[in-house]
Design brief:
- The structure is a homodimer.
- By secondary structure, chain A is mainly alpha-helical.
- The first copy, chain A, has a single domain, classed as Tetracycline Repressor, domain 2 (Orthogonal Bundle), CATH 1.10.357.10.
- Chain A is built from eleven helices and no strands.
- At the A-B interface, helix 8, helix 9, helix 10 and helix 11 of A face helix 8, helix 9, helix 10 and helix 11 of B.
- Chains A, B: Pfam families: TetR_C_46, TetR_N.
Chain lengths: 241, 241
């Protein structure tokens, strides 16, 4: 007995492959519509399978599928943060931000829905998935600052910057992806160095991290550029010293 | 015919006063519990009135009461931002932040619930109330920067800082209100000046605003202190210039 090519493909996938296929279909739908506007029928249609098959994999229905898709997106997002601890800090941050912003660009409205949590199916579990990504981002950054036991001021500075990056991503999506991604990314790196330096003024631990980071920077890197651009702006403020 | 004192007080309030009394009772409940954990019975009990009376004022029930309480909290929050355009920018920001952080301190969990929107009764209307407060905060700050027509980089910097302040407020509540409010507030002022200065490096309009602001600062003010504290940290970075 022969079957149509579509049906053969349908049969050939392993459980893991099928599950993954359904998550990809769900993610791409959530990427362009709010979760409450995505139905299980939409997911089945996008994956080219039947509704009962979606239910077989996600018997909890839409809520379970949404959480699994969110979990899968969160895993993908966390992978963006991995970066070897080598070279100037600004370069590491630039590369991680390029991957993160690439994710934002690719998932656009799904990323917005994910972060804003403005969903009828939001639960404490979905909130904790998003918070887990934030925590992972903070831990990655703190590990790059080479500080043994980061104190509250340094931690708060890093967490505030992460929230500011999320806000910038949402504003960027809202403003039709302007400015270009590399300009946005350079601005975020600048802001990170700026807030870290401001905190360093009052916190010896952060001051140590900044000195260590600055020693690794080069004149033609982002921080060298920032330093030379900012100097003329603040040089009129001699009356403050 | 005489009535008990409680009943007399009950009768004497005008419609506006009664409404306001119910909102105050609702706000104080939402301040300590998530909206989904507050019932109309709780509000009636806290206000010392009957449940039907609450329904007479808010026939839409809990959703309408929640939105009205949110609207009232938003109005109160927006009042914190008003500040005369006089004296150094850091002083204006310090005073506005003191009022804002006082609001956060007073409403604690209600503030968190308000911002996180992690509520079963969240709607696009409640989201737009919170967004309205953010927009109002941004417009206030931009007006103090004395820039005629703020461009996208300056706007984004201000909006990112506002989100970072929200994050700091939530972290502060989450960490049992540590550090002391004045230390938190000084750190937020420092970060504002830092991100504004970083943006000034690439944006002539922001550079103009920073020069103007720095000219008004005094050596014993927050920005003078920040400048003197940061100088030794960055002075090792001569290789970047």
């Amino acid at each position: 007995m022969t079957s149509a090519p579509g049906t053969r493909a349908y049969r050939r996938l392993s459980v893991e492959e099928r599950r993954s296929q359904l998550l990809v279909a769900a993610l791409s739908l959530f990427a362009h519509r709010a979760p409450e506007e995505v139905s299980l029928d939409d997911v089945a249609e996008a994956a080219g399978v039947s509704r009962p098959l979606v239910y077989r994999y996600f018997p909890g229905g839409k809520q379970q599928l949404y959480e699994a898709a969110l979990r899968s997106a969160a895993d993908e997002l966390e992978k963006c943060f991995a970066e070897p601890q080598e070279g100037p800090l600004s370069g590491r941050l630039t590369r991680a931000l390029d991957r993160y912003l690439g994710f934002v660009d690719q998932h656009d409205m799904g990323f917005a829905a994910l972060l804003q949590g403005g969903s009828v199916v939001e639960t404490s579990r979905t909130t904790s998935i998003v918070d887990g990504v934030r925590r992972a981002a903070a831990e990655h950054i703190l590990s790059h600052l080479a500080v043994a036991d980061p104190g509250p001021r340094l931690r708060m500075t890093v967490r505030m910057w992460i929230t500011a990056v999320e806000a910038a991503s949402l504003i960027w999506l809202d403003e039709d992806k302007k400015p270009p991604l590399d300009e946005l990314r350079d601005g975020l790196v600048d802001q990170f160095m700026a807030v870290l330096t401001a905190t360093a003024g009052r916190d010896p631990q952060t001051a140590g991290a900044v000195r260590h980071a600055l020693a690794l920077e080069t004149p033609d890197g982002p921080v060298g550029r920032l330093a030379r651009l900012v100097l003329p702006v603040v040089s009129d403020a001699a009356h403050l010293f």
